[in-house]
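Q: what sequence does this backbone want?
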């Protein structure tokens, strides 16, 4: 989720969230939403809501390639037909900053609903940070997801992830180790990501991920983010699948 804009009082801006992603050769997702205060909630609560619309371009004589997880990608059409767009509604709530008494630096709640597929997801994410002599920052992230509804008995009902990141301010280098598991798969998914700042706003990241019973995959990603309102990223991932996955993403955030 895009970071919220910090403002005080009733004059707080209501930024518009807009993002267009390409996560496969023929698969796209458009995100539209807004950040705004919610009535009867303290101003310190950061809230946002919106919708994700997935669609795909049809190919002649065959269905388009679908590289997205179920629930966000467009439905497969008959050969030569037009894809059926998918739609998901989402909301996020950032809890107030007075969480230091619990040992947390940040905590967020999320909700995602798919009216067509009659499924949903509840999530919670927490962050803890430690700084050492202003040159090294360690960040511990935990996330938990609960999946509701859906007709696939093999789909996971819950998912837990934990990640540790070490960031070196002097060199602009960050290393992150993630681990996660679900109730439907044995073993633990592991990933290692190394990121390097090349110049102001430009970063390059390389990753290695290991999935239980699926083998390892490798990825390369470039991120250009000159400010808080614009972000462009391009990535390439190869793995045990039949073909690599290329992704382009553009994100804009505008204040009314």
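A:
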């Amino acid at each position: 989720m895009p970071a919220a804009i910090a403002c005080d009082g009733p004059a707080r801006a209501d930024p518009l969230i807009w993002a267009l992603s390409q996560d496969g050769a023929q698969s796209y997702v458009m995100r539209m939403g807004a950040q705004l205060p919610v009535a009867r909630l303290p101003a310190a609560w950061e809230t946002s809501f919106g919708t994700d619309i997935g669609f795909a371009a049809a190919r002649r004589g065959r269905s388009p390639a679908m590289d997205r997880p179920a629930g966000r990608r467009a439905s497969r059409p008959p050969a030569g037909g037009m894809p059926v767009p998918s739609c998901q509604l989402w909301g996020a709530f950032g809890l107030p900053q007075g969480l230091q008494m619990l040992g947390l630096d940040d905590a967020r709640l999320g909700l995602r609903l798919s009216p067509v597929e009659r499924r949903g997801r509840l999530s919670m994410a927490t962050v803890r940070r430690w700084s050492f002599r202003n040159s090294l920052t360690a960040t511990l992230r935990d996330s938990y997801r609960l999946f509701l509804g859906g007709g696939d008995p093999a789909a996971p009902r819950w998912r837990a992830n934990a990640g540790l990141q070490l960031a070196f301010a002097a060199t602009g280098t960050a290393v992150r180790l993630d681990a996660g598991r679900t109730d439907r798969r044995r073993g633990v998914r592991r990933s290692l990501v190394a990121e390097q700042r090349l110049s102001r706003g430009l970063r390059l990241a390389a990753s290695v991920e290991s999935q239980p019973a699926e083998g390892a995959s490798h990825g390369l990603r470039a991120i250009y983010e000159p400010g808080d309102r614009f972000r462009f990223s391009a990535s390439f991932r190869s793995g045990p699948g039949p073909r690599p996955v290329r992704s382009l993403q553009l994100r804009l955030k505008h204040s009314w």
